Amino acid sequence: MDLATFDTGLLHATIERALRRGGDFAEVFVEDRDTLGLRLEDGRIEQTSGGHETGAAVRLLTGERTYYAYSDAVDEAGLTAAADAVAAAVSAGAQGPAVVDLGAVRSDPSRHPVLKPPGDVAIARKAELVRAGDEAARSVSDEIVQAIAGYGDTRQKVLIANSLGDLVFDDRTRTRFTVQVVARRGDVIQTGHEAVGGSAGFELVDEEIARAVARTAAEKARIMLDSKPAPVGAMPVVLANGFGGTLFHEACGHGLEADAIAKGASIYDGKMGEIVATGMVSAYDDGSITNGWGSQAFDDEGVPTQKTMVIEDGRLTGYLYDRLRAREAGAAPTGNGRRQSFRHVPIPRMTTTYIAPGDMDPDEIIAATPRGFYAKSLAGGQVEPASGNFVFGVAEGYLIEDGKLTTPLRGATLVGNGIDILMKIDMIAGDFDVKTGVCGKDGQGVPVGTGQATLRIAEMTVGGTG
Amino acid sequence: MFEILDAVLERAQARGAADVEVYGERSTSHRIKVYRQEVEQLTAAQRRGVGVRVFSGGAVGHAYTSDLSDGALDDLVQRAVDNAAVSDPDEFAVLPQPGGEPADVHPFDPRLEAATDEQRIAVALEVEATALAADPRVKTVEDTMYVDGDGEVFLASTAGVRGSFRAGQCYAFAYVLAEQEGQVETGYSYSVGRALEDLDPAFVGNEATERATRLLGATKCPSMKAPVILDPFVSAAFFGVLSSALTADAVQKGRSLFAGREGERVAGELLELVDDGTLEDGLDSAPFDGEGVPCGRTPLITGGVLQGFLYDTYTGRKAGRASTGNGMRGGYSGLPGVRPSNLVITGPATPLDEIVAGMEKGVLVTDAVGIHSGANPISGEFSVGISGVLIENGKFTTPVREVTLAGDIVGMLTSIRALGDDARWVPGGSIFTPSVVIDGMAIGGT
After folding, report:
1. CA pair distance A1, B121, nearest whole angstrom
2. Is the Cα dihedral A214, A215, A217, A221 positive or negative?
3. Which of residues 272-311 of B touch A (CB under 8 A)?
4. Cα separation of A390 and A382, whole Å?
5. Chain A to chain B, count of Cβ pairs less than 8 Å apart?
6. B40 contacts in chain A (CB < 8 Å)
7. Which among B177, B404, B408 has CB closest to A265?
8. In this complex, do B402 and A389 lie within 8 Å of one another by their Cβ atoms?
9. Do A68 and B35 touch (CB under 8 A)?
10. Distance from CA of A360 to the nearest CA of B (A)
11. Which of B:423-442 have CB within 8 Å of A?
């Protein structure tokens, strides 16, 4: 199946068929995805796995309702069955709007250039990367007892057609390399993790980069062997660049997604234009960053990705929309309608979300903190968008004493509230960095980037065991 | 589907692969979301695909496809063979052999496929209506869902494994936001079953609202060391994280805090923990696992003493013992891996009100966030954010939130002092657990 030359007559017919009993918008999403995953653990490459998945989904919107049907069969029978399933569910019975003729197919292949398509690279070359990662991690210290190195690439081709006449083809390549390390000293076991990823090809990672990623992960685990249990209490918290952006993603970003706003399930509902952060905070979601892990040329509704300012100098300026929520709100879609695959309904999702850098030196921030907690990397966290309450695990943390980093601390969590912490940011450095991750929402995982420079939150609750 | 499986086996053998296993899946599912008494989203899905494992001199290659055309099956086999060529050989990686009679369990109820969209929608509408009516402080029911899945699994191999079964389940879910004086708290509830008729929509609506409203007015409490009661939802989340350390995979790879501790006391002596894939009412029950090995019943902790671990074929061979039937697959695209089926926590039950009445100071924990990120299953250390209700002098007093609960898993298990009389199934890992009472936990507040 070649999506670039797919029968547009069939797409048009499917959209008409879906709308025949009512509805005001219909869409066909066709997907063809190739995946390869390599994983090395315990010094050996385990069961190497790869696959090819194809499928098509038909979506019908009527008012605020969504009807969705999908099938793995991308042929006339499969598309017809899906169109019939959504049409049967519509109770209106009246013919939907006329379907606009599909125009010429839009695509933007140069948006995220792929220099070395992973499909052209022998699997054995990819295997060398995970072996190099394993060796580099173990060479850091005798206390490294386990290394798990992973390499993955996917090529996802999508074709999106809708009743407005949009026809978009997007060919997406993503490559990622990850290392997780376990260090042990006596009864103390600690782990470290590091990853690189992008909407790019095999050029993203070579052996040297693989080794550097592995060493970083191993150093984290080794340093944490010397750690002491984190203290409990409220104190200034300095969040390091890169990983620290996860906190903004979880604690604030999810509340900016327009589905949470529409349901009144966000602390940012009704606050447009209001002050939600200190004046030094400006923040963005940008799905168009070249080769970014969270980037695509188009979102999964065929809308071009863009840079959206969500907070300007402390003031709330924007929400993140998919088509459905933009329609309801009378706003323009922002290229944030994403889905994990054809098996998932598109919903508003972040792409790469970040707090813009300031101009301080990160060392200055630490030096200005007599006593506090320095969170170098976060283990992930959870948030309730409705209340803004969040909890984050800290993978690598340090005590700040007399303006210097001292003891490594383990078992710490950061507990707080999204609005509250943005209102307490009092210093931002210039060392901006973006980290890669996979964000889960409503059972769908999508690649996202999180970014920030080193910054300080004047006071935050640290929960530890010490 | 068996014709496709046989075609894959034949093609793989034609390419020189002697040991081949192929897994096929065909399923339908429905998902209905309602919002403010209207259907918000209705999804109907068809899913099918095959996954193949090729064993070549101890090296394993896996490939999968949802495209079942002739050409695609050729590609599938070629990929599996190519992938095996890059994997490192391992003497313990061999094709699973036929494992005897499948377990006598019937995870499909024909009433499931008889349900209509109208009935499914009615369940979801009743859940939401009940939740909204249960308390005036309900701000909205952010998510109300009915979900079902009906799937057939097929397995065949050159070793002579050949079997299939059908499994179905459904659930209703609500996630409620309650508001009072600007403070928002949340609560959720589930009902699960093999057929729509097994669900209790009113129970889900009422419970979700009650769980949200009981937290209204919550504040931080002072830091203290005190006993806590983990309610079944929170208990299930902890045992879910803990269970990964009870797999032979984690043990053999040095990732389990229970490694080498078989026969030792690792939990309060009243605790019994069993993995049981043969329970008629267990959501993850099946006649056989993803490798064709019959599902079974495996005691993990008895009288607080660690009994053993869960095995698939590979980890079993490595340890010189048989698989426990825990080689689970997450669909046709996934490789089998060691995972629990249904985890059942039992022991002498004490009425919950008696437990509360006997507690001078403690916390009933009804929500814990960050268990998956805040708990380290390797070291066993955890620190999570909790919400719940303070217990003082044997009575529930004020709700608490934004406080942390920290400790280490083994320390926590050994401090289990009592189990409630409120055991229930909690989905999301299929765990049956009562409330669990734990002494001397570190609570971090003001």
Report:
1. 37
2. positive
3. none
4. 6
5. 233
6. 64-66
7. B177
8. yes
9. no
10. 31
11. 442
Q: CB-based contact (8 Å) between B88 and chain A? A: yes
Give SS3 for A10: helix
CB-based contact B185:B216 (threshold 8 Å): yes
> What are the backbone dihedrals phi and psi of residue B55, each rounded to the nearest 5 degrees, phi first?
-110, 120
User: What's the CA angle centered on A406, arms A400 and A408, to 5 degrees?
Assistant: 100
With beta carbons less than 8 A apart as the criterion, state whether A449 and A176 touch.
no
The neighbour count for residue A341, using CB atoms within 10 Å, is 18
Instruction: Name the one residue in this structure whose structure tokens are 């918290």.
Output: A237
DSSP string, A357-421: P-SB-HHHHHHT-SEEEEEEEEEEEEEETTTTEEEEEEEEEEEEETTEEEEEEES-EEEEEHHHH
Q: Are A325 and A262 in contact (CB under 8 A)?
A: yes
pLDDT tens, per residue, chain B with 446 residues: 999 999 999 999 998 888 999 999 999 999 999 999 999 899 999 899 999 999 998 899 999 999 998 999 999 999 999 999 999 999 999 999 998 899 999 999 999 999 999 999 999 999 999 999 999 999 999 999 999 999 999 999 999 999 999 999 999 999 999 999 988 899 999 999 999 999 999 999 999 999 999 999 998 888 899 999 999 999 999 999 889 899 999 999 877 889 999 999 999 999 999 999 999 889 899 999 999 999 999 999 999 999 999 999 999 999 999 999 999 998 999 999 999 999 999 999 999 999 999 999 999 999 987 766 555 666 777 778 889 999 999 999 999 988 888 888 888 999 999 999 999 999 777 999 999 999 999 888 77
Could you tell me if A264 lies within 8 Å of chain B, comparing CB atoms?
A: yes
Structural domains of chain B sorted by starting position, each given as residue range(s) with its CATH number in brackets: 2-212 (3.30.2290.10), 218-446 (no CATH)
Residue A367 makes CB contacts below 8 A (sequence gap 6+) with A403, A404
Please provide residue A52's backbone torsions phi and psi, each rounded to the nearest 5 degrees. -130, 120
CA A107 – CA A111 distance, rounded (Å): 9
Helices (H), A19-161: 76-89, 123-139
pTM: 0.89
Cβ pair B67:A182 closer than 8 A: no
Q: Under a CB-based contact definition with an 8 Å cutoff, are residues A452 and A245 in contact?
A: yes
Neighboring chain A residues of B186 at a CB cutoff of 8 Å? 384, 386-387
Give the one of B43, B63, B117 whose C-beta lies nearest to A50's C-beta. B63
Q: How far apart are the first and last CA of chain B?
A: 61
Burial class (CB in 10 A: 0-12, 13-18, 19+), B181: exposed
> How far apart are the CA of B277 and the nearest CA of chain A, in angstroms?
24
Interface subset of B 370-399, CB within 8 angstroms of A: 370, 372-376, 378-379, 381-385
Q: Is B353 exposed, middle or buried (0-12, 13-18, 19+ CB in 10 A)?
A: exposed
Two structure tokens written together for A416: 């707080």
Please give the ipTM for the structure prediction. 0.86
Best A84, A153, A377, A389 residue to mutate vs chain B (most B CBs within 10 Å): A389
Enter the tokens of residue B330. Answer: 């997450």
The phi-psi region of residue B34 (left if phi > 0; otherwise alpha if psi is between -120 and 50; otherwise beta) is beta
CB contact under 8 A, A45 and B257: no
Query: Of A317-331, A334-348, B121-135, B361-375, where does mean pLDDT reach its minimum?
Result: B361-375
Give the list of residues 6+ apart from residue A277 with CB closer than 8 angstroms, or none: A283, A311, A314, A422, A423, A425
The contacts of residue A161 (CB under 8 Å, 6+ apart) are A8, A11, A12, A15, A27, A28, A102, A167, A168, A302
Tokens for B285, please give them. Answer: 């029950």
Longest dimension (CA), chain A: 73
